[in-house]
Amino acid sequence: MFNNLFVNKIFSFTDNVAVIINDISFTYVHLNESVKKACKFLIEQKIIPGKSVVIKADYNFESISLFLALIENRNIIIPITTKNTVEFNDRLNEANCDFIITIVNGEFETEIINKDQANTSHYLISEIVEKDVSGLILFSSGSTGRPKAMIHNLDNITSTFMDKRGKPLIFLVFLSFDHIGGLNTLFNCLAMGATIVIPNERKPEIICNLIQKYKISILPSSPTFLNLLLISKAHEHYDLSSLKMITYGTEPMPESLLLKLRTELPHVRFMQTFGTSETGIVKTQSKSSSSLFLKFEDPNQEHKIVDGELWLRSKTQILGYLNHSNESFTKDGWFKTGDIVEVLEDGYLKIIGRSKEIINIGGEKVLPMEVENLILQIDGVNDCVVFGQQNAIMGQIVTANISINEKSDPVQIKKEVIKLCKEKLDNYKIPSKVNIVSMIDFNDRFKKDRKLQ
């Protein structure tokens, strides 16, 4: 019996398989025993409630067990998956943590952080400690500069899963352990007594093999990864008939890509998800599997559109940033997402771009997704990314990086891109530069890199 309501709910499921990793299956009984072992470890290490603890790991059986034990122990949890030493140390400095726990050969190892006396706890961390609840610190990707450290009341987040009923579903956990979407999948699965399959690598062939082998029914993913899957043709070499639903998020989905996916996987239902690290994941309803329009249907979330931008306010939003101003939040708690949307009369909306990615051509505004959607219609184009590049005369110019298949002629593709853009777009939206590249850059969260250059 556990004191935390969410952790206790999980173990109402007994013989169900909880986790599959490296061809080993662990039931909820095994997970229960592992969490108790982790709780004992925390006591032995004198990691008392309120202390901030880094879990230096991605998804595995032990890291999930430790995460649940830290919830039970009312700690502030900081999952960090990066293997880049500089990135890890940057996050460590921003998090103001007390302990680091790594997992070596299935065992926990603790490192105590010796803090300078002047390095006092942030007032938001003190707020979590005073409430005697578990906390969560997540980091932004840092794609536009210094990563933001965001602190959540984790008990608030897990409480939204308490009404979940048991369902015999098998999920593949795709998004990482330190990503709000990845954690949302974890909480959702555990609250339903579902099975979580953890891949060793996030490659199309490996993912498709796991779907076939374990009859996976739900795949959370991103448009970038789904496009890589189509390019690899891995879906043609494995039996994916068990797959009932693919959810996609983290970045806008190109319409042409969604239509290709519907053609290649006609038996699969596609559902767009939406969420931010600041506000949590929103329960959504896609208008259809072929539509990019969605509707928010979440009692824990409010939304409104202000000058074309989506604003959210939620029960699960962060207390604030540890290392950044809270200017993205209004005084009455609305979070300005930066997402530009198109709204239909029936309440459905579509994300058409990010305000920070808008290209300014001498005062004229260009949404990269509009240009990308057009380019992706050209035969021979595998993928593309459109972004702004600094220009002394116009301020910025439109640049397109394009990857093509091996049978296509780069010179001909460039000509077709310019020709189609001239036919369909205003002059200022036509790319001034078209670069043929071997592949489109994306980060470890399978999200395209659109940095201004």
Residue-averaged pLDDT, rounded? Answer: 91
Strand order, sheet with most strands: 6-5-3-4-7-8-20
Provide the β-strand percentage band. Answer: 25-35%
Please name the CATH topology of the domain at 5-159: Rossmann fold
Number of strands: 27
CATH architecture of the domain at 5-159: 3-Layer(aba) Sandwich
Structural class: alpha/beta
CATH superfamily of the domain at 5-159: ANL, N-terminal domain
In the CATH hierarchy, what is the class of the domain at 5-159?
Alpha Beta
The end-to-end span amounts to 55 Å
Unreliable stretches: none
- What gross morphology would you assign? globular
Rg over CA atoms = 23 Å
Determine the fraction of residues in helical runs and give it as a percent range: 25-40%
Tally of alpha and pi helices: 12
Largest sheet: 7 strands, mixed
